[in-house]
Amino acid sequence: MAFDLSVDNYIEEICRYIKWKRCHFTVKQELRSHLYEHIDELIADGMTETEATDLAIREMGEPQLIGNELNQIYKAKLDMTLIIPIITILIINLYFVLLNNQTQSLLKAVALLIFGIFICFVPDSFEDSKQFMYAKKVFLIVLISFIFCVVFILGIEPGSYSYIFLAAPYFWIYQLKKVERKGVSGMIYISLVMNLTCFLCLTMGNYSLTLMILIAAALIYVYAFYYNWSGGKRSIDIVVSATIFSVAAGYALYKKSNSLPSAIFFEKEIFTEINYIFMGKMGVCMIYVLSIIVILSKLVGITCRQRRNINNLVGMVITFLLTFQVLGVVFSIIGISLFGNSFKIMLLDNGVCSVINLCLLRVMLNLSDRNTIDYISLYISQRKETITITDRGFIFNLQIPERRR
Amino acid sequence: MEKNTLYVGNELLILKLLCIRDMYGYEIIDKLNQKSDNVFNFKTGTLYPILHSMEKKGIVTSYESVENKRIRKYYSITAEGRKELEKEFLVWKNYENAINNIINEV
To answer: I want to staple A74 with a disulfide (CB 3.0 to 4.6 A). Which of A20, A38, A40, A52 is the partner?
Structure first.
């Protein structure tokens, strides 16, 4: 059918100029729908099919022009802000691989590393529309396999946390359908922060875990009140998380020492030294690392909106992880209560520490997003308005017909 | 036929339309033509690059809907888009005022 061929050929011609193949499916679908709608309308007005097709295509414009413009939008750029974190994560994970001298640990670490790379790159290589379509399934498979690997086969390893961060984007893609590649970038930043913090904590001294719990709890509630006060509606998740976390942490300490006050002073006996070193300063380090990222993102020139997207994504991921970790903590407590298993104690230890750190990070992100970044964005957007007029970025000719003059 | 050429922000017009309700590409062009009494001769092929770029910026979002056995990609304005609309509107007002001031003086 000449009719179908000409429309399809025209759309193919447009897509020929778009180098980023992953957007072809959606672009083709949208343009095809537009053209057929126009053709139907022209046929209803009395044109033949061929005439209508020709006119609709002519009115759409030069395929090269449209293709080039779309190509500019979807142009794959060598995004150093994405590549540098990926390389850093891999290097840090390799460091953990080399750190474990025992063969068994080395195998575990290598398996985790491969698993992480797989999660990071393979699902991301699919076309966006397919990612959206299968995102929930991909997310569930990744989550189940992660839990299976970590809990039943590999056990908790330093650095292994990073891989769940890489699984999270697909959940959010499914939820929002607009995350695109930025989602992955957000996860990678979080992974980088986690890994870097682990790395830093290795070489730094200890902080009191109890103090961290108290500061975290206080900040969480301040944050919740802040949100309520400012009319936000998102406070319920953090309040629930904070309550579960506080109850879980308090119950765990109480369970191990029979009384809460004595638990505060003997936490070293409860939490092993290695986890103390790894996780104790994590929250504090995270804040510093994140602050550096926020400053760097400004310096490297990404737009305010992109940064806000990253911040929003990070905030959502933290909520998700908080829920996950809190569930882990509850699960561990039940396990300890029933079996007194030492492995579960380790799990609880890691879980509680992660919850603290994530809460701190979330608080920091939201506060910075609402105050400092808002101020900066206002400044930039005001400047941008002037630029918009002078550079005429998105403009078209408004032609006033003679009868109007 | 002598024609005057002015420059108007595409985003302002599209965002304003999307404030009324979610629309698909073809509908946007149609509405622009209708509302401007065919003053705006919006070239069809230029709309989609603009819409896609707006989506990438996060000021509009899209979803697909099947109607009359045809998949339509609807665009809707985001919270970020509403803020952008306010800003664009102010820019346009300033621009309009500046022109008016000059014209009135002359």
So the answer is: A20
Q: Name the strand (E) or helix (H) holding B5.
A: strand B4-9
Question: Structure tokens of A404?
Answer: 């109007």
Examine the predicted complex and report whether its ipTM is higher than 0.85: no
Taking the CA of residue A54 and the nearest CA in chain B, the distance in Å comes to 14
Matching residue, tokens 């705006």:
B40
Higher pLDDT, A272 or A123: A123
Quick check: A307 and A226 in contact, CB under 8 A? no
Task: Give the pLDDT confidence score for residue A95 in this predicted structure.
Answer: 54
Compute how many other C-beta atoms are within 10 angstroms of the C-beta atom of residue A66. 27
> Over 50: is that where the pLDDT of A404 sits?
no
DSSP character string of A120-143: HHTGGGS-HHHHHHHHHHHHHHHH
Could you give the 3-state DSSP secondary structure of residue B88?
helix
In this structure, the strands spanning B60-67 and B23-24 are: unpaired
A65 reaches B (C-beta below 8 A): yes
Phi-psi region of A142 (alpha: psi -120 to 50; beta: other; left: phi over 0): alpha
CB nearest B9 (choices: A30, A395, A400): A395
Residue A405, helix vs strand vs coil: coil
* Closest CB from B5, B9, B48 relative to A31: B48
Q: What percent of chain A has pLDDT over 70?
A: 17
How many C-beta atoms lie closer than 10 Å to residue A359's C-beta?
25
Is A125 touching B (CB cutoff 8 A)?
Answer: no
Pick from A18, A26, A30, A53 the residue to mutate for testing the B interface (most B CBs within 10 Å).
Answer: A30
- d(CA A304, CA A108) in angstroms, rounded, equals 40
For A309, nearest residue in chain B (alpha carbons): B58
Q: Which of the residue ranges A2-16, A117-131, B56-70 would you say has the lowest mean pLDDT?
A: A117-131
One-letter amino acid identity for B17?
Answer: L
Interfacial A residues in 219-258 facing B (CB < 8 Å)? none
What residue ranges in A236-289 does DSSP mark as E strands? Answer: none
Interface test with A, best of B15, B32, B43 (most A CBs within 10 A): B43
10 Å CB burial of residue A255 (0-12, 13-18, 19+) is middle
Helix (H) or strand (E) holding B75: strand B70-77
DSSP tally for chain A: helices H, then strands E:
18, 1
Unique residue bearing structure tokens 């092993």: A272
Q: Is B40 on the interface with A (CB under 8 A)?
A: yes
Phi, psi of A400 (to 5 degrees): -95, 115
Cβ atoms of A178 and B58 within 8 Å: the answer is: yes
Predicted structure pTM score: 0.42
